[in-house]
Design goal:
The two termini are 17 Å apart. This protein has helices at 40-55, 96-103, 112-123, 182-186, 188-200, 205-210, 220-229, 232-256, 272-285, 306-315, and strands at residues 4-10, 14-20, 30-35, 64-71, 74-75, 81-83, 107-111, 132-137, 141-147, 150-151, 260-264, 296-299. It contains 10 helices and 12 strands. With 317 residues, it is an alpha/beta fold.
């Protein structure tokens, strides 16, 4: 009778819980989603609720072998959430002891993008690749780095935050307190800004229509949707945006020299419409292109469940 694992993905708006069989993790046995409440105590209650609900779905005779929790924030090597700007009042939040006491199984807490990277390496597009980075382009930018087959957490657990590499010191303010971070340009919010500029110049009519008629309401998803319809102006906006994605990837590749970069997050739904111009920009910008092996820049395979599945797999590793 195999041991099962619970994985949670704790984001700024939702807590996703999943129950997986580590022998067949790509087909979760159960999933539960609740809103993320405010405050550490309420978040811990929500984690218990989600774990109870998915664990109750385990087939008769199956025991839990571990619980993994992926959190959008900086997690230290002991699993304490040190800084999580999207989780209200959850600074120095340490959920492991209470969960471990309730379930008497090992509990692992890690950064959500680290969890997603682990899942892509175990059962996704990076399976068998020892050197890769996963970059998630969503509201912000997340990253998990795998070197020699192991997640790189750094000396304190804070490694892998290229979203806060400054690419324009005079750029727009970032929630982290600085200006011009890469994620201000290359996340969904960055795409929204490029699109609003185009809309105000009258170069994004279909995108504005999808946003309900006002340029102020344009967001990244409207661009993606119009581009998938084949709208030329939206495709032009996406190409302009892709230059910023390619710039950050070139910086990342110059540091890490990975074999593959996996692009995940909501914007990955644009697929080749985003990936193709991103690769072109990356090739123009990376050091010594033409003298180095091609780095494969590919879309993630696992979709929005990757973080929860990866958390589960890390808990029973
Ligand atoms: Zn920042």
């Amino acid at each position: 009778m195999g041991l099962l694992a619970v994985g949670l993905d704790v984001g700024g708006t939702k807590v996703l819980g999943t129950l997986v069989d580590p022998q067949a993790p790509s087909r979760p046995l159960a999933q539960v989603r609740v809103d993320t409440p405010r405050g550490a105590d309420a978040i811990l209650d929500a984690l218990h609720e989600v774990i109870d609900a998915v664990a109750a779905e385990r087939p008769r005779g199956h025991q839990l072998g571990g619980i993994g929790v992926g959190v959008a924030g900086q997690i230290d090597l002991a699993g304490v959430v040190r800084f999580a700007p999207n989780l209200h009042d959850a600074i120095d939040f340490d959920p492991s002891p209470a969960i471990a006491e309730r379930w008497s199984v090992p509990v692992v807490v890690d950064n959500d993008a680290n969890c997603a990277a682990w899942a892509e390496g175990e059962i996704g597009v990076a399976h068998g690749v020892d050197q890769f980075a996963l970059v998630t382009l969503g509201t912000g930018i997340g990253c998990g780095i795998v070197v020699d087959g192991a997640l790189q957490r750094g000396a304190a657990g804070f490694a892998g935050e290229p979203g806060h590499m400054v690419v324009d010191p005079n750029g727009p303010p970032c929630p982290c307190g600085r200006r011009g971070c890469w994620e201000r340009f290359a996340s969904g919010s960055g795409l929204g800004r490029v699109a609003r500029d185009a809309a105000e110049a009258g170069r994004a009519d279909r995108v504005v229509a999808l946003a309900g008629g006002s340029a102020d309401d344009v967001r990244g998803e409207h661009v993606t949707r119009a581009a998938l319809e084949g709208d030329d102006e939206a495709l032009a906006v996406l190409r302009q945006f892709a230059w910023w994605v390619g710039l950050g990837l070139a910086n990342l590749v110059n540091v890490l020299d990975p074999a593959m970069v996996v692009i995940g997050g909501g914007l990955a739904e644009a697929g080749e419409l985003l990936l193709e111009p991103t690769r072109a920009a990356y090739r123009d910008l990376v050091l010594a292109h033409g003298h180095r092996p091609e780095v494969r820049i590919v879309g993630a395979r696992l979709g929005p469940d990757a973080g929860a599945i990866g958390a589960a797999l890390l808990a029973v590793k």
